[in-house]
Amino acid sequence: MRTFKITTLPGDGIGPEVMDVALAVLDLVGSEYDLNFEIKSELAGGASLDQFNEPITESALQSCLESDAVLLGAVGGPKWDNLPQEKKPERGLLKLREVLGLFSNLRPAKIFAPLADASSLKKDVIVGSDVMVVRELTGGIYFGEPRGYDEHEGFNTLRYKKYEVERIAKVAFELARKRNGHVTSVDKANVLDSSQFWRNVVHQVHQDYQDIPLSDMYVDNAAMQLVRDPKQFDVIVTQNLFGDILSDITAMITGSLGMLPSASIGEKHAMYEPVHGSAPEIAGQNKANPIAMICSVAMMLEITLNQPEAAHRLNNAIESVLENGIRTIDIASSDSTIVTTDGMRDEIIHAFQQTDKSILHSRELVRE
């Protein structure tokens, strides 16, 4: 039996609810694949602020450093909006990324065929879309110094070092080799010196990946193109701020933020989390869509824990449940069978248990 250490950070709002679903899924995967998950739960975000007056504690950070992977629910909410910047729940997330060295954020946006009608875009525009946004996560304007504000001005510094751009570009090109073989580098080089530097370094890295076509695109045009023709994109690589915005645009192409996972990867550590926020307006009501959290578990199983078969079974189980018309309220249509958070958990677990592992494995070998 293999053992993996997992630190969970349920966080705020619906975070604890979707984390409970994640733990149920891990328990099932462990029993099916003879895996032991040592789970340690820590506080982060507003929950940590309420108890420790810090958005994340040193002991929680240490637990994350000692784990094979970290699972995060969601952080933040209006309850903490008026706190100073250094005390806001999101500062804990930024600290976590910095301490763990999580410099690359992978945000897939792939259309679930049964949900194509849930998108606000026309079906013929989005069907077949499969975009991966690779967002630089530990540099740029979110971390640059100097920074601050007073009653007369506010300022932040957008700064990148060469090695920061090089390593995120390499991640993008390596991913493209495993996907559809194209990288779009997004910047604002027509007005920002930092973006011209970004573009220059990405093209230098591209010299080692001549088999992968590279395109440059200004961020305003990229935002427009994502809603006009998302199928033109494969891997998008961009800086922290632009990636934050563009990945939310790609998320809405799929119809719901509740559907999408993300991975934050460094050289030694990894954290997995759903894209959606804490949704405090529905917290505690058993209405949250847990699919993004389950997909995040699947990404963790495949990327960090090297359990691709379990990951594929989970994704197939989700697809099967959606094909049967089962929905949480956020993605429901008039002819859907609406279920609660717990109901969706049970449906996906049942579908996972019904999957024949040997058949699934043979199918995946054919695909590869």
Task: Kindly list the characteristics that best describe this protein.
single chain, 368 residues, Isopropylmalate Dehydrogenase, 2 domains, two-stranded antiparallel ribbon, disordered C terminus
Describe the 3D structure.
The protein is 43% helix and 19% strand. The chain has 13 helices and 14 strands. Helix 1 (15-33) runs parallel beside helix 12 (341-354), helix 8 runs parallel beside helix 9 (240-253) and helix 10 (291-303) packs antiparallel against helix 11. It has a ten-stranded mixed beta sheet with strand order 2-1-3-12-11-4-5-10-8-9, with helices on both faces. A two-stranded antiparallel ribbon has the order 6-7. A two-stranded parallel sheet has the order 13-14. By secondary structure, it is α/β, with parallel strands linked by helices. It has helices spanning 15-33, 46-52, 58-65, 89-100, 123-126, 162-178, 193-206, 219-228, 240-253, 291-303, 308-323, 341-354, 357-367, and strands at 2-11, 35-41, 69-74, 104-110, 130-136, 148-149, 154-155, 183-187, 214-218, 235-238, 261-265, 270-274, 326-327, 337-338.
Secondary-structure map:
Blueprint (H helix, E strand, L loop, with lengths): L1 E10 L3 H19 L1 E7 L4 H7 L5 H8 L3 E6 L14 H12 L3 E7 L12 H4 L3 E7 L11 E2 L4 E2 L6 H17 L4 E5 L5 H14 L7 E5 H10 L6 E4 L1 H14 L7 E5 L4 E5 L16 H13 L4 H16 L2 E2 L9 E2 L2 H14 L2 H11 L1
Parallel strand pairs: 1-2, 1-3, 3-12, 5-10, 8-9, 8-10, 13-14
Antiparallel strand pairs: 4-5, 4-11, 6-7, 11-12
Helix pairs in contact: 1-12, 6-7, 8-9, 10-11, 11-12
